[in-house]
Amino acid sequence: MSILDRQRIVVDKSYNRWLVPPAALLIHLSIGMIYGFSVFWPAKGKGLLNLIGKQCDPAQTSLFDRLFITHCDWLLSDVVWTFSIAIVCLGLAAAVFGHWLETAGPRKAGVAAAILWGGGLMISSLGVSSHQLWLIWLGGGVIGGIGLGLGYISPVSTLIKWFPDRRGLATGMAIMGFGGGAMIGTPLAAELIDTYSTAQAFLYMGIFYFIAMMIGAFGYRIPPSDYKVESGNQVKKDSAMIAKNHVHVNHAHKTYQFWLLWGVLCLNVSAGIGVLAVAKPMFQEIAAQNFSAAEIGAIAGGFVALLSLANIIGRIIWASSSDYLGRKLTYAIFFSLGTLLYFSAPWAGLNQYIALFVLINLVIMTMYGGGFATIPAYLADIFGTQHVGAIHGRLLTAWSTAGILGPAIMSYVREYQLSQGIPEAEAYNSSFTMLALLLVLGFILNYFVKPLDKKHFMSDAELKIEMDLAYKKDAASQLEASSVGPNKTLQKIILPIAWIVVGVPIFMGISNALQKGIIIFL
Question: ∠ at Cα 394 (391, 398), nearest 5°?
């Protein structure tokens, strides 16, 4: 297993750093399908809510009963828990394994992610075919969620170190694919469900993602510890918010700034993830009177694809912009503009301004994705870059909390509204209002984020010990890897191929999203 070790993938300064983002994208485009999971539980048509043909009566069956029941279909809130469990396990895995990844390296983490995410989807396939909800929760939720966490954090610190001159751009590239995964995977899953079955869709996608993620994992490379960018294109932003020193991962959580940023991420994510968790059934119910029964399923799938497109665009644009705006101002924009949009969404839906409702959600989704892509750079600014990967992993427990909070607000409040006789098209209005209030609180928390006191940083002597140790390991690793590492000529050949491999599916996903989504505006 030495081929997976960190020491095997350290390269010298001559390595082309633009070869690393495609490897990260292969993994993130795969695990990003979690955002498209609502395609597996549409309100109407083939899916997890209509396997038997008769819905379980919530008054007669408990959630525990429905974990094992085989004679009636699950509720929307039951299957949405798969998504929530996956996000919870993502955050917990990132927190637990973040520091380990810094030592083990991104390749080992990427391989583990491929096994867990691909295998988890295969276990979900078994759960669907046997109508056992607990197996779907175990496969797509727990096991797959751990794979999500490992895959998500695997490239972040690596790309920040490769692109010290563009931290926002680096983190945007690192997790851009996570936002766009559903854009590619949703139509693929829908086609597999229609052609075969929901169970087979889970199985085939598990196999496909395992292969893609293994290729990505073996494409990772790590720069030497003394790596610096020699070009003159660095962002020259000398801000008081950007730390000149470094905080150890074991000390970061003892600062109030860590917990303010934890709250900032949690609240921003809760708002966006609530919409994503129920995107397809929500659109079907709100827009039902504007489209025929035959059209609504496909158009709702287009809505999900457009959300994914907005998510991926936001991760690049907002994260890159934050290099110039600053992270704090960028988040202030997210929370202030987002609050207005969440308050506006129910009004647009109530008045059946469907195109406007979609546009509102698309802008919301750009800021949701932008928040994810900006937070690693925000952490690097506050805590320094030495342990940013591990600190980021621990902060992602905020995502775990948001993965329960956001979807619960959307699904359980909806079911309560329906029980009170509220029409389906209006059942999400209260949920949107609650999400808007979360963003108000997020704005307040972000306002109080200040630079760290000097006492929290590692001393020069402590940092030197870490840097010297890393330098010696990297020097030995480069000597070992030099005989197998690609030369400059080979790098020039591989570079366009690597970008084509990830660029073609992204282009196809964008094209498909626009083709399906444009119908909404006609």
Answer: 125
pTM above threshold 0.85? no
| φ and ψ at residue 10, rounded to 5 degrees | -80, 130
Cα–Cα distance, 275 to 279 (Å, whole number): 6
- Phi then psi for 222, rounded to 5 degrees? -115, 135
C-beta separation of 139 from 124 below 8 A: yes
**Whole-angstrom distance, CA of residue 411 vs CA of residue 76:** 7
CATH classification for the domain delimited by 16-228+239-472+512-521, as one of 1.20.1250.20, 3.30.365.10, 1.25.40.80, 1.10.3720.10: 1.20.1250.20
The span from the CA of 255 to the CA of 268, in Å, is 21
Burial of 68 from C-beta contacts in 10 A (0-12 / 13-18 / 19+): exposed
Closest CA to 177 of 361, 21, 40: 21
pLDDT digits (tens, 9 = 90+) for 17-60: 999 999 999 999 999 999 888 889 887 778 899 999 898 998 89
Hey, where are the domains in the chain?
Answer: 16-228+239-472+512-521
State yes or no: pLDDT of 238 exceeds 50. no
Answer yes or no: is pLDDT of 65 > 70. Answer: yes
Structure tokens at 419: 């029980």
Residues in the chain: 522
DSSP letters along 357-374, please?
A: HHHHHHHHHHHHHHHHHH
**Would you say the C-alpha torsion 326, 378, 86, 213 has a positive or negative sign?**
positive
Helix/strand/coil for 511: helix
pLDDT score at 236: 47
83-142 residue pLDDT tens: 889 988 998 999 899 889 888 899 999 999 999 999 999 999 999 999 999 999 999 999
Instruction: Using only the alpha carbons of the chain, give its radius of gyration.
Output: 23
In angstroms, rounded to a whole number, what is the distance separating the alpha carbons of residues 477 and 469? 12
Residue 28: closest CA among 212, 304, 298, 294? 212
Query: What type of residue sits at position 140?
Result: G
